[in-house]
Structure formats: C-alpha cells, structure tokens
Amino acid sequence: MQIARQWTRFDHHVLEGLLGLGVLLAGVFGALVPLLGVTGPLPAADTRMVDIDGRAQVPGSPASGGMVLRGTHHAELALSDPDFGERLLLAGPGIVRSLLIAWVLYTLMRMAQTLRQGDVFVPANTRRLGRVAAGVLLVGTAVPLLDTLTTDGLVGGTPLDPAVRDVYAPSLGAVLLALLVFAAAGAFGHGTRLRADTEGLV
Amino acid sequence: MPPEEPHEIAVHLDRLLAERGMTLAELAERVGVTVVNLSILKNDRAKAIRFTTLSAICRALDCQPGDLLTYGK
After folding, report:
1. Segment A70-116, tens digit of pLDDT
2. What InterPro entries does its record include (chain B) (predicted)?
3. Which of A50, A92, A165, B6 has its CA 20 to 30 A from that of A188?
4. Are the C-beta atoms of A46 and A89 separated by less than 8 Å?
C-alpha cells in the first residue's frame, strides 16, 4: 500500500514517457536510420566486429609501462564499397535487435499504462510478460545466430573466410534474463488468477 | 472450472429480507459486512461467499444456507 501511494500519477507518466522514449530511440536510431543506410539516403554501416582465429597481429602496438596491447582475437571487418546485399547483411542483425528491443519496451509501456490505470494484475499483462520474455530470448539467441549467418554470408568464399570464426555464441545473460521473466510471468499469471478468484468474495 | 464461467447459484436475500421486514442496512449492521458487499450478494454479483459471512447471515435471518442459496436460475 505504501509503495502504491508512492507511485503518483506523475511517476506513472514519467515511466511511460521513458519507455516511450526508449521505443522511439530504438526504432529511429536502431532500425530506421540503419535501414535508410541500407537503401541509400543515409551513409551505410560498412564495418562489423568479428572474431578471428588469432593469426592477425596488431601492428606496432607500443609497449608502455610494462603493458602491451594485444588484439589477435577480435577484428573489424571493413567493406570499402558494400553493395545493397552486403549493406543489408551488415545492418540486418542490428535492425532486428533494435526492433525486438523496441517491441519489448513497447510491451513494457503497455504494462505501465495498466499500472497507471490502477490494475496491473490483469490477464493481458501475463501475456505481455510472456512476450517480453520471448523478446529477450530472441535478442539473446536469434540475433547472435543472425549475426553469425550474416558474417558467414559476408566473408564466405572470400580470402578472409578461413581467418574469420563464425561461431554461434548466444548471450547467456539474455537467456537467463528471459528465463527469469518467463518465471515471473508464470507467477504473475498465478497471482492474477488468485486475484480473480477472490474478486467478488463477500 | 475457469473463473470466467458463469455460476448458477441464485441468492434469495431480497426475499428473506422482505419476509422479515429487515433492510439491507440493518442486516449489514448485524452481520458486520458492508452494505456494498451485501448489495453485491443480493444482486447476484458475488462470485464467492465466506462461510463466516454465510453463518452470520443465517444467524441474523434465522434461516438455513439452503434458504439463502439455491442452484439453478
């Protein structure tokens, strides 16, 4: 009750506003701008960080104070003049990731709206939490897979192919977070059902 | 049973009150339940009733649960 009192109407609007801003930023800078880069109107991304086999050396890394800069396992794959397909492969994973993040934030914003309306324990929010969990899971698993596939598409058949490691590496943190949100959705659903049971109890 | 499925329990509080010449407010005072909650019960909008509430109503109206509740509309 005390916590509920602290959530004033202003707080709810701030929360919704922040989530809405997140949706906007993810949509514009994460999806729209890269998409415009792919199609032409804006400068396109022409680089991607890739894992390499450790054969490349950082030239002239200066030793300073007993420290040495080593850079043999990650490298920047740069395309001098990528065509449409290459631009799409470069930007694709980032666009998908941003769209998923925007979707998750939008879903959270819808949940925040129900909080402002005073009743967050509604069945719709259980489904929304499930969607959030699915979104986080896709960010942690599908996007890295897309990243691996598109990297393979970019360097496959080129002289760089043997040097670039295209190993699928899902984000364990995102998977763990998704599992937690799935569990929270289950608990939320149970609480919603219990609330529905006691509603109308005389 | 899904909670959203409608029940078929009829509440005869209005008839019992009329037979005893008692108002809802008087019953609420005797039973210790708010008029709003008794009104919900009387108008068939309650989804559940506590045994304690049922006992108190039966005591106040000098009736049996079967006088208050019947199955089927």
Report:
1. 567 788 888 888 889 989 999 999 999 999 999 999 999 999 998 88
2. Cro/C1-type_HTH, Lambda_DNA-bd_dom_sf
3. B6
4. no
Q: How far is A104 from chain B (nearest CA, A)?
A: 29
Long-range contacts of A8-17 (CB under 8 A, 24+ apart): A9/A116, A12/A112, A12/A115, A12/A116, A13/A116, A15/A112, A15/A115, A16/A109, A16/A112, A16/A113, A16/A116
Smallest Cβ distance to B33: which of A197, A199, A202? A202
Q: Is B33 on the interface with A (CB under 8 A)?
A: yes
Q: Supply the CATH number for residue B31's domain.
A: 1.10.260.40
CB–CB contact B48 A201 (8 Å): yes
ipTM attached to this prediction: 0.71
- Residues in A touching B41 (Cβ below 8 Å): 202
A127 min Cα distance to partner chain B (Å): 17
Domain span at residue A191 reads 2-45+84-198
